[in-house]
Amino acid sequence: MRVGLVCAHAGPSPHADGPAVGTHQHIARVAAELAERGHDVRVYERREGTELADTAEVGGYRVERVPVGPPAPTPTAKLVPYVPEFGRWLTERWSGQWQPEVVHGHYWIGGLAAATAVRETAVPVVQTFHSLGVEQLRHLGRRYGGPGERIPLERALTRAVDIAVAQCNDEVDELTRMGLRRAAVAMVPAGVDVTQFHPDGEAAPREQRSRILSVGGLAAGHGQDDLIRAMRLVGDAELVIAGGPPAGRLADHAEARRLRELAEQHGVGEQVRIVGAVPHDQMATWYRSADVVACTPHYSSAGRVSLEAMACGVPVVGYSMGGIADAVVDEVTGRLVPPGDVRTLGVTLRRLLADNAGRFAYGHAAVDRVRCSYTWERTAGALERLYERVVGRRKPVEA
């Protein structure tokens, strides 16, 4: 099957309203898995700069960089006017010898470009939003920083696609509230690279006291402030926050300064350590160094951090929402607490850190759960069946 994956951003986006690093890892891994299954896969992303070639062969699939928009990193809001041009470029590209049998849009900008490109053809469109503006607005409130046109354009996109792929049950419900029929929404969670994330291997250096690890961007809505407030109830433990800019730039980072000040105000400044960005290929060592991984974002569709931690055999304490609620089985692979309930968060962390046998049991169950239900092979297989279904619907019936 010929598959076109479209993401209008170029590589991991540095912008708060653009797709996260995990989104591009997701697309790359899906493309590689589909190619390994024998499909002809091409990934289309926007070209930024001139240092990269127009096309590249990566992991059995082809990446094509589309020369649309400014040749520099660009916020999502400023990419919206280039969607028609992106769509026309794809239409022309697909008018030659190679035309996809199915197009899969990623993130809302990529989906708009994909739907624009094939609107006058019989090529079906599958869409993964990775995050929804209306959900982010509900959970983040005034801290939501997405462009104003995002939500109405996402609603319009739901009417243009054959099927939408949700990554968690909360997203299934949200997409149906946006007007999609339930039959037009498929739940396919993200996967985990279990060859990279596993319990055996090196661990990052640590102190003698217990370690709680938090992983996520240093921006509003990632929940590090809730964890810092909860540390007053935890006792003698360290909270390590990984994410944001590289360590050398943390001193000038406004959110890092705010979190440090918050820790001092609550009397836990000596217990909180912000380490900055950690390369993804080194994250497993940080997960293994932790006694507990805390996942407290105010919005999370995929629950990637919780899955990676569980694959490394580390129990998760997380907010009961989005992909975290789907991944973590309460009192089996970790603990779930009500979103925003700082007191329950602190008490739960304290009790779990004191329960060595409980953490051991949760960690073993977590590894089993990931290997059974959250591998990339399983994700690619589900998408493959989905593609076959929508292509079969669109093909004309022969006499």
From TrEMBL:
Molecular function, one GO term: glycosyltransferase activity
Ranges of residues in domain Glycosyl transferase family: 206-357
SUPFAM superfamilies documented for this protein: UDP-Glycosyltransferase/glycogen phosphorylase
Domain spans labelled Glycosyltransferase subfamily 4-like N-terminal: 22-195
Keywords: Glycosyltransferase, Transferase
TM region positions: none
Annotated GO biological process: carbohydrate derivative biosynthetic process
InterPro entries reported in the protein's UniProt record: Glyco_trans_1, Glyco_trans_4-like_N, Glycosyltransferase_grp1
Gene3D superfamilies: Glycogen Phosphorylase B
Protein name as annotated: Glycosyltransferase involved in cell wall bisynthesis
Lineage, opening ranks: Bacteria, Bacillati, Actinomycetota, Actinomycetes, Micromonosporales
